[in-house]
Amino acid sequence: MTSAAVNRPAGGAPAAEALGPASAALRDLPRCAIGVDVGGTGIKGGIVDLEAGDLISKRVRFDTPQPATPEAVRDTVDRVLQKLASHPECPAEEQLAVGVTFPAIVIDNVVLSAANIDPSWIDCDAGQLLSALPGRTACLNDADAAGLAEARYGAGDGKSGTIMMITLGTGVGSALVHDGVLVPNSELGHVELDGVVAETVFSARARERNQQPWDEYGKGLARYLAHLWRIQPVSQFIIGGGISTRADDFLPYVTGLRAEVSVAKFQKNAGIVGAALFAAEQAQAAGLRE
Predict the structure, then answer these.
(1) Fold classification of 159-265 (topology level)
(2) What is the rounded CA–CA span in Å between residue 112 and residue 243?
């Protein structure tokens, strides 16, 4: 697979001429970048080969500080970067792009929600907060990063049209990617179904809390995906998050949908891979606009 094939949607779709967030039109990306995935229990990072989407370093992980205030998280992200800086494949600081994910709405590097993150993050300019750390930083929603990784390198690679990534973990995250271009901050885990917020029923945590049998969980998930399809018709759903490792237990019961249902390729590394790609493309786009 060539870098041109990876970084451009198949079939010459109109989005191939766009220039926006994580645009598929961008060419000649650096060989690698760093992705950092900030989660509720752990902050993980790695160096990503942007041609193949593979980690070329070991994944570095530190516990998320408690409380996870912006300053405490910044210091932990710095620890991740310092650990990765010693890797022989790590780009020099002046060439380094660093993507950082948050479980929140993120617009122009500003964190605007706190459903699964410390409330002190609301209205925090994460780009400014992280500006003293090595590299050029770009921030995005964690599910968006995972969806971008899967659309470009994973279960959605080479497929045109609209893809929806659903991450099932502590909560429910979503990402929309159309012809290789991310449509950020969809937040469809917070829609209501039968008068109940979806992530309180369909997250991996909710299934464990309710001790729900896998067949019952799969049938419920099918209803949720059908509801999402009516809101936003897609050609493919990609199921990610920690529960994707148990896909054989529940996916046989996710039936009757008008879209293909696939299991995420990258699982726990999807956020890291997508964050690195996003940061590299954002750095290149900024250079083109300067």
Answers:
(1) Nucleotidyltransferase; domain 5 (3.30.420)
(2) 27
Task: Kindly report the backbone phi and psi dihedral angles of residue 150, in degrees, each rounded to the nearest multiple of 5, phi listed first.
Answer: -70, -35
Residues with Cβ within 8 Å of 140's Cβ and at least 6 positions away in sequence, in order, are 21, 22, 99, 100, 101, 102, 106, 184, 274, 275, 278
pLDDT (tens digit, 9 = 90+) per residue, 170-220? 899 999 999 989 999 999 999 999 999 999 999 999 999 999 999 999 999
Q: How many CB atoms lie within 10 A of CB 267?
A: 16
Q: For 142-177, what is each residue's pLDDT tens digit? A: 999 999 999 999 999 989 899 999 999 989 999 999
Q: Which amino acid is at 108?
A: D
CB 35 within 8 A of CB 46: yes
In CATH, what number does 3-146+269-285 get? 3.30.420.40
Tokens 């917020």 found at: 197
Residue with tokens 């925090």, as numbered in its chain: 124
Query: What are phi and psi for residue 44, nearest 5 degrees?
Result: -115, 150
CB 240 within 8 A of CB 167: yes
Nearest 5°: CA angle at 115, between 111 and 117? 65
Q: How far apart are CA 238 and CA 264, in angstroms?
A: 6
Number of H helices, E strands in the chain: 9, 16
Burial of 59 (0-12, 13-18, 19+ CB in 10 A): middle
Domain boundaries for CATH 3.30.420.40 within the chain: 3-146+269-285, 159-265
**How many CB atoms sit inside 10 A of residue 128's CB?**
11
In the prediction, which pLDDT does 284 show? Answer: 86
